[in-house]
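The instructor's notes for this session suggest beginning with a concrete chain rather than abstract definitions. Hand out the sequence below and ask the class to guess, before any prediction is shown, which regions might be ordered.
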Amino acid sequence: MINRLLKANKTSDNTLFPFYCLAIIFFFTLLCFRNPVSCSAKESTRLPYARITAETTVNPWNFTITLKSSRILLKKEVAKSKIVLSSKKKKNFKIIASFYKLSKNGRNILYKIPASKQHLLCPANTSKNGIYYLQSSLFAGKRKVRYSERLTKNTIAGFVCNYNGKPIANASVRLKTTSKTLTCKTNKNGYYHLFCNRKPVSLTATKKGFQKNTITSLNLSSKGIVCENIILKSSKNSSCLLDFLVTDYNNQPLSDTTIQIFSATARKNTQKLSGCSSQTDTLKKGNIVFSGKTDSSGRLSLGSAKNAILTPYTKIVWKNDTQFSYLRTYQTSLWNRKQLAKPLRQDETYLIYFTKNATQKNTAKSYETKKMIFSFAPFYTNHVLLHMQLKELPVTKTNSLYIDYNHNIDIDSCQTLTVSLFCKEDAVPFYQKTYAKKSLAIAENTISLPLLSSLSLPDGNYYVQLRANDSQNTVTGISSVSSLQVRNGRILPLLISLEKPYYSRILVFGNSVNMSNNMAANSSATASFNLYQIWDSRYFLVGSFSSTPFLFSSYRLPTANLVISSLLKDGKYLLCPISDTMVGETYSVLNTQKLILSQNAENTLSEAPSAQICCKPANSSSYTAASTNSASTNSASTNSASIASANSSSSAVLTAPSDFIPQTLDISYYSSNAITQNSVRTSTSYPNTILAFYNSNGKLLKTSLTVFSGTKTVFRKKKGILDIYQNKRILKTNQDSYR
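After discussion, reveal the predicted structure:
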């Protein structure tokens, strides 16, 4: 066309040339506007020379959509533009996002979904996750964009930190499920995130320099992320401190409360015994870690004071409901802390029993026995103060105990009656009381005794023994040890037989030079012994006896008489020297009726001794016994044969039988509680809540470990985004779309 115009120009008048030039310029101008060289079909019709693309995802924190431009834009060019978000799955679903701001470089355009529409994308069950399409006047056609909800279902997430709230980075987190194991590492903020579509079994966090922590009883939710924060303790300080405060329900301290701690192996060997209202555990005595009593203030402290860290510590108050609190200071000094032979372990489970029964000093009150299953593992501190409150038991109710006495007993000479009560696990009576004759209701062949009218006893099995004395404090009647049962605060009816007592005389002599030296320094040297009755395969202390002063015999051996009273004809007894190490041997001669003497104490000195005991000084650990078959041997006619018999190799050393000290303990308790990880982590005052502060685009600004009671005020803050990570709870946030 241009060539034709040039040819025409040559043949035409020169005056038309300017018009031809104008026509050519006009043609090129139309061509340029109709089909620009630098624009394509997808380029903006409003933004010349600007190629517009879209981010592939919608920001789930501030619900913004970002468009990017190939050139720098002015705010006035895009301020009135909008974006339409639609879905193919739901034809009627449509959200309009308005212009929010333009980046400083002029290339990123941000559009924000209005707050009133954000909740449409956040049902907290991931049902809105998927592909969406964008339409805008800034570009032709549609652009794909993906949306993924921030709080997803079947997800376990949280933070790993120390007790000060400092995050632990690069910690290994392992989630064990019923079918597989999932693992991940924490980021620099201590955050971890695991998706799980199977039932979780355990969650474990490990890091070098820290003690491993495992959490069980996990939950999943279809409504959002379940938070599980994990606190790791430093492995540098592994010493554990355990303090006790025992009071009644009015917070009055209870002194002399027995606290027994058994290791986890004792738990495995625990057997439930049959009982009525109470429960009883049979525990191996070898598994006992500690046994002691509280002081006058009701306190007892255990653990090594050398490496003790007093802050922070955990306080537990156990009454009807268990309460936990966490304090930064502790006032008790360390000088009175009991040092354990084996330190308390972090990964061990302990059984703790609290027993406060009536004693001879305090016969008016008794308290329920409680049992606790305890472990340091659930707590984020190694120092625990346990405040145990024991309930006072009501007075044991009984009408009377009926005592049947033998016709050989001179009941008129009886002036007092002494009652001794025993527990199963103790050979020494825990309660003794003497009643005057005027308080006894004496009838023909029976005595009615208002026993234990002011004593409180826990339900359980006990043993009772009675002893009648005359005005000279001589035993005139004695009963065998009998079983006594307390059920529902009442003593079951019991008939006890009071019988005539018998005496036995034993010849005691010394065979060492040391004893002779002791006698020279102390002319009144005697030997003391404890007498135990064997009944129901147990041992019960029925009396203590001392010999007459030692005198030198013709063979220059110190000799004394030991007169033992309170014997029954068919009774079985154990005689033990009183020493630091209790040793003894049952004397079959004491079971021989013909060698048991009458109660006339004067005649016993001239009768034949029932046995001979060769003693050593009290600081000696061995005792030797020898019995004689001669009924005519007496203290004045001790011959060389009897001495030889006492010193012969056949003489047995008094050693305790294997069942003298029970290998097991029977402990009856009223209530039991387990301080486990589950109870600790569900406590409202447990600092298992982490507050995470984010800016509007999801960048983590700060985390802090706090108690749940303080989150309500913080939750109302409107600046930025606050997420509350509380164990066993769905993630809470102040983000408008999730509220």
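Then share the key points. The radius of gyration is 46 Å. The chain is about 10% helix and 40% strand.
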